[in-house]
Structures are given as C-alpha cells and as structure tokens.
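4.2 Preliminary Data

To establish feasibility before requesting continued support, the project team ran the inverse folding procedure on a target of 389 residues. The structure was first converted into the token representation described in Section 3, and no sequence information of any kind was made available to the design step. The complete token record follows.
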C-alpha cells in the first residue's frame, strides 16, 4: 500500500456563524488548511476533492456542494465526490480520499467538511430526526437524544456508571475548549461539576451538558503521497490505519447491543491491525462524544479501558490533559461543537496539530501516535483512523 500523509489541516471558528455565508465558511476552512502547509501548493497540484456535508439541502437549501466546493477552491480535480454518512461523513470522506490515492485516481486530495446548522432552527431539528429510521423509529419518538439515553440507562444499570462520571466528561471537555479559541464554548470557560450535574433535562438521564450543541463550522485537510509530501510540508502526519464498520441495521431496535458497540470494535480492530499497533500505544485520541455516555463507551470499545470500566477511566482522570491518554483535547463535540459534516475532519485536524506539536496550551507532550473515532446514527456506523508523525 502507498504511504499517505496529511500536509495541511485547518478548522474555522465553530459556533453561530451569522457573519458568513455557506461558501465563505468553506473558503475560510480552505485558507486555514493552506496556512498550515509551506504555502507552495498550487490549485493545479490538487487532483482530487472530497466534500463531507450531511444535509445542506435541508439546512441551507443548497445541493451539488461538491461542485460548489471546486469553484470556491478554484480547482478542477479528476475525481470529485460528496460524501454523506450523517455525523461520520468527514471520516468516511477521509477513508474514500485515501482509497482514491491508493487506487491511483489522485495524488493530492483536498477534503472539505462543512455544516451550517443555525441559520434555520426548524431544519436543524428535522435534520437530526431523519438520521434514525424514520419509518420505524423516529416516528415513535426514538431520536438521537432518546437513543443515546437508552444506551446511558443500560450502561448505568449493567456497569454502575454514575451521574458524576457522565458529567466528568462534560467538565473535562469544556475545560479543553477553554484552551481552544476555535471552540464554540471557548468563551464559556471551565464549568463546575454542579452546573453539569444540575442542568435542565433533555432526555433522561441526559441533560443539557450531556449533549453536543447545534453548530456552524467547516474544516479542511490536504493529503498526498509520501513522495509528494515534502513539497508541501516538513511536518507530514501519516495515515497508518483506517477501519470502518456498521451494524446490519440503521435503527436502535436491531442493534446487537446498545451499550457495547460491536461495529466500533470491528472498525477499531481493522485500524489497529493495519497500523500494526495496540490500543496501549495510542498517545492521544479524538472520539465522538455527541453525548457524554458515548465517550465512556468509546473508552471501552476502542480498548482504552476494560468493558464496564469507562466510568472509572474518566473518574481517575486518565483521559484528561496530563492523564495517561488525553481524549478530546479540542473540547470534543461537546464543547468544540458538532457541525455534522465538519466534525470528522475537525477531529483529524486536532490530531494533526497535536502530532506536529502545534496545539498550544492543550499540547500533549511527545504525542506521536493519535487516533480519531467518528460515528453516525445510534452508534450504528463507525470510522476509526490512526495517525503518526
Ligand atoms: N451544552 C451546553 N449549553 C448549551 C448546549 C449544549 N449542548 N446547547 C445549547 N446550550 C446553551 C446555549 O448556548 C444557550 O445559552 P445562552 O442562553 O447562555 O445563550 C442556551 O443553552 C439555550 O440554547 P438553545 O439553542 O435555545 O438550546 P436548545 O434547548 O434549543 O437546544 C439541545 C439544546 C441540547 C436540545 C441542542 O443543543 C441539541 O439538539 N443538541 C444535540 C445535537 C445532536 O443531537 N447532534 C447529533 C448528535 S448524534
């Protein structure tokens, strides 16, 4: 297989972005990514484009966003594709772009992830309700909130996971966001445990501070072959492993287990196997904390903690900055924000910055191997990537 490297990666400020249009948000992310290369890259160097956008038709009433992105970037690639896998679109796009390079269809690929969710609040609510199985489940009130609430209830019942442990994830990720100027809740700063525990209920047992927010934001990543990478950076970050797996159903009622995510285990195992490493060798991870319970289950099913010990992992401070395996140093989806199509590539951007030693106040010392995990639906579909510097 060809060695493929990230040569540039950037994100826009996340949050409510009334100050820009959809295409301006895209442009902002591209400029951010180019600024992290040596700026020798020219439009004609880019021969592939993958755009991760979950629901622009509904949210901003714009379709054909792959072509729009080519116009905004000023490029005419040989392969262009828009990828939609709901919240996991960004990582699925990365896997496809990597495969396109492996297949010899492109040498240097620009990836753009974007979602503008706050411009039409009704559309944003609807967009979240049509990701689950509309015909059999959403119609009965099983939406993202209640689906993950079921997972939390079962995890609490089976393994004794506590209210405090759920809130510890929120407290940690808000602290990390206070160190990240691009995060939606950067200005909110640290939050005390009492605030996280006593927030208004959304779907029992998940309260406001157990949920990721509604966000506008974009991210961009540039990848190329190892041979080309030195033309654009002296700090390449290599893609070492890539894995993807899915439950055989879109809905929660047919999942093999609600509080153990077997598809995540399969995706992670594929990525570990390809990279030739074990979970113990990971120095830093960005995982999909759409709800606090998700991060706890991910510690377990990614192999960072024994099954049932995810709550203790956060309680013991293992995943904090300064802990044995810092998770979601960016602030995570919880506090950096979750603009659906932008999330996967924003996770990859955080790991790239960390592995380049450019994460500022939230830098993890000597980080050399990083992992990203991105999921969609009720944790029915997962994508895992492993990177090294
Ligand atoms: N965490 C912390 N604070 C939040 C928040 C969150 N997730 N979401 C909103 N807030 C804050 C806002 O900043 C605002 O604060 P302010 O009054 O100081 O300005 C306040 O709560 C009200 O915001 P509003 O947008 O009106 O809240 P809401 O009740 O309409 O929405 C949620 C709250 C949790 C329902 C919404 O953020 C949501 O739907 N999140 C889940 C998104 C999701 O499911 N994504 C896909 C995951 S798979």
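Position-by-position output of the design step:
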């Amino acid at each position: 297989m060809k060695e493929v490297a990230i040569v540039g990666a950037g994100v826009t400020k996340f949050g409510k972005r009334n100050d820009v249009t959809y295409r301006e948000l895209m442009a902002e992310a591209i400029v951010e990514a180019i600024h992290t290369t040596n700026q020798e890259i020219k439009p004609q160097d880019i021969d592939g484009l993958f755009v991760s956008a979950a629901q622009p038709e509904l949210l901003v009433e714009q379709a054909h966003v792959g072509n729009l992105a080519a116009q905004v970037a000023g490029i005419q690639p040989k392969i262009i594709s828009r990828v939609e896998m709901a919240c996991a679109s960004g990582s699925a796009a990365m896997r496809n772009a990597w495969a396109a390079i492996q297949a010899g269809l492109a040498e240097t690929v620009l990836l753009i992830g974007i979602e503008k969710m706050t411009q039409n609040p009704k559309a944003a609510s609807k967009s979240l309700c049509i990701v689950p199985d509309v015909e059999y489940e959403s119609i009965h009130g099983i939406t993202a909130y209640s689906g993950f609430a079921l997972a939390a209830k079962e995890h609490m019942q089976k393994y004794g996971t506590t209210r405090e442990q759920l809130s510890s994830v929120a407290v940690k990720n808000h602290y990390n966001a206070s160190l990240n100027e691009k995060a939606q809740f950067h200005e909110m700063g640290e939050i005390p445990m009492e605030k996280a525990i006593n927030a208004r209920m959304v779907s029992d047992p998940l309260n406001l501070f157990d949920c990721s927010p509604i966000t506008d934001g974009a991210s961009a990543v540039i990848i190329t072959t190892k041979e080309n990478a030195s033309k654009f950076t002296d700090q390449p970050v290599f893609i070492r492993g890539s894995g993807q797996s899915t439950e055989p159903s879109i809905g929660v009622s047919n999942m093999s287990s609600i509080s153990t995510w077997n598809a995540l285990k399969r995706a992670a195992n594929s990525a570990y196997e390809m990279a030739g490493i074990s979970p113990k060798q990971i120095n830093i991870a960005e995982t999909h904390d759409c709800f606090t319970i998700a991060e706890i289950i991910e510690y377990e099913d990614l192999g960072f903690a024994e099954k049932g010990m995810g709550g203790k992992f956060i309680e013991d401070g293992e995943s904090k900055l300064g802990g044995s395996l810092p998770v979601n140093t960016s602030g995570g989806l919880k506090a950096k924000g979750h603009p659906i199509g932008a999330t996967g590539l924003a996770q990859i951007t955080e790991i790239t910055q960390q592995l380049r030693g450019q994460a500022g106040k939230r830098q993890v010392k000597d980080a050399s191997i990083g992992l990203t995990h991105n999921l969609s639906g009720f944790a029915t579909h997962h994508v895992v990537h492993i990177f090294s510097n």
